[in-house]
């Protein structure tokens, strides 16, 4: 059966891995982004602004996707603005797709802020008991993830297509156009420490250093997205998706240090945020990039220290349960240290971070 995927956010971490995966499985893939340059070879890139329904209608008029994968968002200063903007974006797309017809399945990627709350209250208050399960009730706070779900549920009921909601933890993967990526940020930080002799110091909280956590490799998420979109048992389900292993950062930090040929610094016992450690590192990185012939001398284009600080500074344990997907038939597994190492190797091949020599 011929399957045509429309990936919305096709140049991001999720979209890049999903496009690579689906192309390898014989899908026709259309990649939609505001600036679709740098996408995956073999995709059909289209430029569109989800805030412009007229322009979106023109772009999608001849594209009749059987499956839609929505992996984008627009960040704003307040959650009220996030709700307004992101709800509008998804609603505009759903309205155009309704007019075109033919959609069999719509997959929405959100995340564990479904359980933890939005940025305004992220990691504040008492979190749900771990592991987070899909059956947990929504928090009694505004959250644009909830708005996206409600828009999707209403459209699916109205138009008769199936849906799935995917809730990954921190996503590790490659995307040239998305700096909100812990993997690439830590690769840049480790490379900087090796080049300058700065101690490789864990920037986060004691709860993260000593406690258990998990994460989501983008390639595993891609397989989860295709599985849910093509498996009748997963139709109309909200699903957590994580690698399947658990670890403590006190262990993972040593694994990352070893890969880069570093000695990890002793845990300082308190936060040492990357945003503070690297506040003046731009000129030094530009020098490193020049000496090693790297493709990007601007630090702010390849790393997002504030975003990684947010994940590593949480004051409580964060684990997601995968039982629901397992019971429905998804058996994939990925070790998280290998996910980091594969990404680091790719960043070296693409001259984003320096070689080992």
UniProtKB/TrEMBL annotation:
Protein name as catalogued: SDR family oxidoreductase
Source species of the chain: Paludisphaera mucosa
PANTHER family: 3-OXO-DELTA(4,5)-STEROID 5-BETA-REDUCTASE
Domain PRISE-like Rossmann-fold: 66-354
Domain of life: Bacteria
